[in-house]
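Schema walkthrough. Field components (list of strings):
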Amino acid sequence: MGLECPKAVVLVSGGLDSATTMAFAQSQGFLCYALSIDYGQRHISELLFAKALCARLKSVEHKVIKIDLTQLGGSSLTDLSQKIPTGEAIGIPSTYVPARNTIMLSVALGWAEVLRARDVFIGANAVDYSGYPDCRPEYIKAYENLANLATKSGVEGSAFRIHAPLVDLKKSEIIKLGHKLGVDFSQTVSCYQAEPSGAACGACDSCRIRKEGFSVAGVEDPTVYI
Amino acid sequence: MGLECPKAVVLVSGGLDSATTMAFAQSQGFLCYALSIDYGQRHISELLFAKALCARLKSVEHKVIKIDLTQLGGSSLTDLSQKIPTGEAIGIPSTYVPARNTIMLSVALGWAEVLRARDVFIGANAVDYSGYPDCRPEYIKAYENLANLATKSGVEGSAFRIHAPLVDLKKSEIIKLGHKLGVDFSQTVSCYQAEPSGAACGACDSCRIRKEGFSVAGVEDPTVYI
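Field assembly_structure (string):
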């Protein structure tokens, strides 16, 4: 890629969605600056997979910013005394982390402004997902609006774009897209309580959605289960 | 205050504006949960003054969340190799920290959701200020809109309110309001490069605005200068 490629900040978690999002951003000609947030998630193997992903896809840089959300509590994903629910949830499940995407996008926005990048990518998805409010298209739109009021670059007229290329796709469609882009799904982890090796429980919401996605897409599922 | 008082998360920095904001929130009957962000600001005495403020005003709780924004750079407030500008700035000055208020409000929003509080207070001000984009009323409004799309509580119909009670006030009016509410200004620090004791440089933008505010308000200025 040449020097004229635009820069983008890409939020990466080490999961299937963010791996596909980063591969997609690259396919669109963006130079990717990857950002992971270490917020105290119990599936810390995510961050190891994020690091390996950035090395494989050759991101220009990969920053990990620590924000201890366990201090706030309120989620089974950050509170080890709570159990991760299995089976289909009614309403928004306990794995929801209050304001997580808003916090992550805000750090991404800050970095984008420093880099003079106008594009931020997030792998949010509102079809086959856990029902989190901060994954919906109307949320992404509202964030983009905020970003342009919040920043020096926005005020000076260089508009920010928040890209959520997966937001309207089914899990099976995301898997097909990632497959086409050459994403190595064996090196992604989606499970809410994955082992340090990345081995998945196979029972949580995230595992259930992922497993079904591979089956519907007709793509071989390389996930290692416990 | 009784058990029925509503809860509010209040962002406190240890400065004059956030001290007045917290005193104002209390005067409106809110139980205050104070939140400070340790983002790597060079004027770390802020956080000591914030702690003392919360003790004096008897906040229900005071959390300090660490987010290392020095990793992102781009501001003379977090980059010790840059000099703090003095005198009147043209445009948005180098003390602007990219996306700072957006990041701080996002953590406040997360905590508010956990507490089942619907109110968040921030001491942003768009009159006598440094021209930061994320201090303007239209920014606050856009954040409130986002907050209601971002959260479980918002989706379930219990609307969030982002209060910026100082947003339209002149510095002298803020000082008069704080004075009326009994704020001890000698225990607040505004200087961008305050000494650990809180002693102010008297030359930076923040010192200049504060000094003039006291003079116009006709309130005795208790600030200790270096």
